[in-house]
Design goal:
Number of helices: 8
Oligomer: single chain
Strand content: 15-25%
Distance between the termini: 26 Å
Largest sheet: 8 strands, mixed
CATH architecture: 3-Layer(aba) Sandwich
InterPro entries: AB_hydrolase_fold, Esterase-like, Mycobacterial_A85_antigen
CATH topology: Rossmann fold
Protein name: Alpha/beta hydrolase-fold protein
Pfam family, one: Esterase
Number of domains: 1
CATH class: Alpha Beta
Keywords: Hydrolase
GO molecular function: hydrolase activity
Length: 247
């Protein structure tokens, strides 16, 4: 990615005052090449927003795919999180989990859609997250099916509480997911214990498929790190955004 064209992009920084979280929350917004405020765009909403931009190089990937492969342009919104309390907002057992979901639905979405030409349809919003970011993204989709129909999960931490949440659903044909998991993620070490995320993703995938969710499920050699996820983002983009060159 040495082509200088890929780095000529517009990323703006916004600060949202959240009553739900009782604090301001910073978001980074990528505006695609050729951005036109009079044209509407689909949107990717990323948990761990700073990581997606800095470690995942999501803006560079998106720019390259739009310019070189003719993928439909999109807006990307990266929502910052305080890593010290991240689990409390992203984990279903966390004390700020419900407040974070309310912030996302009732404050973040209206702000973005009033400030930018973001398409408001649930099929034009893609939730994206890694690990626990994938967890909260899936819960947002399940809890607010009128808001979100698509999910990009990078090694989602789909533990028992999340799998039980999936099991409560009877029909998920409206839901589309791109799920990536590394074959070396059978013993992921965290501050809260060790987890077999490979087995968890396989079981979550099974439960989702039984309920007719549309899934692109990918297992590859890889660990629970951005060095693995970063290189797989282009495939996820191609799954969600058609190329103009193939029309």
């Amino acid at each position: 990615m040495n082509n200088s064209r890929y780095y000529k992009r517009m990323i703006v920084r916004e600060r949202i005052n959240s009553q739900a979280l009782a604090e301001d929350r910073v978001v980074k917004v990528f505006l695609p090449p050729g951005y036109d405020e009079y044209v509407s765009y689909p949107v990717i909403y990323c948990q761990d927003g700073d990581d997606f931009f800095r470690l995942g190089r999501i803006a560079t990937h998106a720019t390259q795919l739009i310019l070189d492969e003719g993928l439909d342009p999109m807006i990307i919104v990266g929502v910052d999180v305080d890593k010290r309390i991240r689990w409390s907002e992203y984990d279903p057992s966390g004390p700020r989990f419900d407040a974070y979901k309310q912030f996302f639905v009732n404050e973040l979405l209206p702000y973005v859609e009033s400030r930018f030409p973001a398409r408001p349809s649930p099929v034009e919003r893609i939730l994206a997250g890694d690990s626990l970011g994938g967890t909260v993204s899936l819960h947002l989709a399940l809890d607010f099916p009128d808001k979100f129909h698509k999910l990009l999960s990078l090694s989602g931490a789909f533990l028992e509480s999340t799998r039980s949440r999936i099991a409560r659903e009877s029909e998920l044909s409206w839901l589309t997911l791109y799920m990536l998991i590394g074959l070396e993620e059978h013993n992921v070490v965290t501050k809260r214990g060790n987890f077999d995320l490979l087995a968890a993703n396989r079981e979550a995938s099974r439960l989702l498929k039984e309920r007719n969710a549309r899934i692109e499920y990918v297992e590859k050699n890889g660990k629970h790190i951005w060095g693995f996820w970063q290189n797989e983002l282009p495939a996820a983009f191609r799954f969600f955004f058609k190329s103009a060159y193939t029309l």
